[in-house]
Design a protein that fits this description.
Layout: E1 3-7, H1 12-21, E2 25-29, H2 41-50, E3 56-62, H3 66-75, E4 79-83, H4 88-92, E5 98-103, H5 110-114, E6 119-125, E7 150-152, H6 161-168, E8 172-175, H7 188-200
């Protein structure tokens, strides 16, 4: 079954949408002040309490510091998604599964992590994560295939999720702006449509 991650969750009401839709992952942006979807750790804890136990909460970070990772672990996140660099010593000390995210501009670093047992999975995103823009999915055909699950991100929504999965053959989709309404908040209707479309391709 294809995996579905909704990223950039900012409030408890959005968590209820994810519960209703039956997605697999809920991404909450942590310690990335420039992102409009960044939320305090305390709010993330409240959101996690509202999530169905079947949904894995993922802390989304950029070049996190050691202390930030400790706080993420202590808050109860099930995994951490890391954009940008990860020093070896830092990676050694992380106690929850690590999802390494790659922007289309840094795919050359994929080989370093492809066989790394400390990495649980991957996300392939556009040049500017959260921009709502897609990228040339054929670029993913130029990197070595790995056994670990990988999600496609970057401008994915209800209308193109099936195409993205069909073209790339990846394990699932990671959706943020594509699941939002005009108010910038997650849309119940778009989330339900996304899940309905992805699940339908598996029948």
């Amino acid at each position: 079954m294809k995996k579905i991650k909704i990223c950039g969750i900012t409030c408890e009401r959005e968590a209820e949408y994810l519960n209703e839709a039956g997605v697999d992952f809920a991404g909450m942006i942590q310690f990335v002040e420039k992102s409009r979807r960044n939320i305090p750790l305390e709010r993330a804890v409240l959101i996690m309490k509202r999530l169905d136990p079947s949904i894995l909460p993922v802390a989304v970070t950029v070049c996190p510091e050691k202390e930030q990772l400790r706080r993420i672990e202590e808050a109860g996140f099930g995994a951490v998604q890391i954009h940008g660099s990860i020093p070896e010593m830092l990676l050694d000390g992380i106690r929850i599964p690590v999802i390494k995210a790659f922007n289309v501009g840094d795919l050359s670093d994929y080989g370093r992590f492809c066989g790394d047992d400390r990495i649980a999975g991957f996300i392939f995103d556009a040049q500017t994560p959260g921009s709502g823009k897609t990228f040339d999915w054929s670029l993913l055909g130029k990197i070595p295939a790995g056994e670990k699950p990988a999600l496609i991100a970057g401008g994915i929504g209800p209308d193109n999720a099936v195409e993205a999965l069909t073209v790339t053959g990846l394990a699932g989709v990671d959706v943020s702006s594509g699941a939002e309404g005009s108010d910038g908040l997650k849309s119940r209707e778009k989330i339900l449509a996304l899940v309905r479309n992805v699940r339908a391709m598996e029948k």
